[in-house]
Amino acid sequence: MLKDFEKKKREDKQALSTQIKDLRAQLLAQQQQLLSARLPVIVLIEGWAAAGKGSLIKELISEIDPRFYRVVSPVIIPESSERYPFLYQYNKAIPENGKITFLDSGWMESTVQKFLRHEITKAEYRRRVRQVNEFERQLKNGGYLILKLFLHIDKDEQFERLHSLVESPHTEWRVTGDDLWQHREYKRFTEAYDEFMKKTGDEVPWYILDGSRRKTAVRDSMKLLVERIDRGLAEGRYTGAPYEEKFPLKKMPALSDVDLSPVIDEEDYKKELKRLQSRLSELHNIIYRKKIPVILCYEGWDAAGKGGNIRRVAYPLDPRGFDVQPIASPLPHELNRQFLWRFWTRLPRTGHICIFDRTWYGRVMVERLEGFCSEDDWKRAYNEINEFERMLTDWGAVVLKFWIHIDQDTQLERFTMRQNTPEKQWKITDEDWRNRDKWSQYEVAVDEMLQKTSTKNAPWFIIESNDKKYARIKTLKIIVKALEKACEDHFSQMME
């Protein structure tokens, strides 16, 4: 790849300028077509320091309406200072349908730099390569057009450009210590970039541009972008077929086989509630100091008691260290992005707890049953969700998922009580009654969800909630046990 790259021969400047002008006109015409076809585009521009990435982006966007694109320059944060998962800032940057995001460097530069600095291990490097491939495949399968470019210059060319920048008081600020380090270690970076591109080029290919020929690089990048968009417009929005990776799964019972008879008496409930909430408060302080992120996911039947359960979990927590995210139907700007985007943007920082009241599992339940996504979309989502949760647990997060379970008779009793109690009538809607009519269909979907997504690192727990107080105590016990184990594991890792 980079090792074998040959410089292009110089071309006639006038001919290049004419070609660029024609390509700009085509790109200008395509922006309205992209909007009509609802096709989102991501252009990732990686390359050597001083290769001209910024100038190239400037040329690419020169004729595009600023309302249709965004330029993002992700920051390479030192590993010791990171508070979010590796792909967090790149997921946040993905565009809405019909718009373009240009990334001025991205997941390759971040991974390679940190690996060569020994900030991440070989095992973590391999994990990140896998995550990048999963990320790109999920976007591609969700209809995104992705173009990955690498702007290449040789070591001598880089030296001349860096030297020229440093010589001027107006541009010396643009040359960082990392740029100079990259130049000194040019050979190591070449090998590292080649390896990364080789390992991440199967799903979405890399294109290497000759950065020593600026006009040629502009022409070639515009041509690639125009061709990629033309192909996407001609073929229509691509959605990938379902696929399945073998994840280590925890065997789950069918909902119909769950015994819903467990109860707890009032005295035991009060005693256990006080003990568990006190311990949870202690553990919250510990996970904050150890920077362990915690993600608690609540799903369940309407009127099963999710809200009351969440309140008992949240009560002992320091309000500065947790968030509750109630998830409703996606807003237009959320609906216009890959379905996991709105959950990536709600993730907690390290040391914080996030409680999701409804989750990404809506994809394989309500969206599946109500026809809000295609069959391929929801069938593909099982694996995409498992990959997403594996990224979270690889990051160090504790991920616990609770299905709050009741029977139909209990639900009817609670619906009726809500409807007949003025101060609780806001809790019952026509949609709740419609969902109840589809109980058997939802049960099939939930059983499949539990069987396919209860992984060892992010397990499901079925919480028997005919007795709400029993459900609260069981949930608190699971959370306390999991956090105690996470703190012990963290201590063991520190001792190794």
Overall mean confidence score, pLDDT: 94
CATH homologous superfamily of the largest domain? P-loop containing nucleotide triphosphate hydrolases
Strands, total number: 10
Rg calculated over all Cα atoms: 26 Å
- CATH 2nd-level architecture of the largest domain: 3-Layer(aba) Sandwich
Looking at how many chains there are and whether they match, the oligomeric state comes to: single chain
Coarse shape: elongated
Helix run count: 19
Sheet-strand content, in percent, reads 5-15%
Helix- and strand-based class? alpha/beta
Biggest beta sheet summary: 5 strands, parallel
CATH class of the largest domain: Alpha Beta
Helix content: 40-55%
Please provide the ordered H/E string of secondary-structure elements. Answer: HEHEHEHHEHHHEHHEHEHHEHHEHHHEH
What is the number of domains? 2
N→C terminal distance: 39 Å
Give your account of this protein's structure.
The structure is a single chain. This protein has 496 residues and is an alpha/beta fold. The chain folds into two domains: 13-235, P-loop containing nucleotide triphosphate hydrolases (Rossmann fold); 255-495, Rossmann fold. 52% of the residues lie in helices and 12% in strands. It has 19 helices and ten strands. It starts with 12 loop residues before the first helix and ends with a helix.
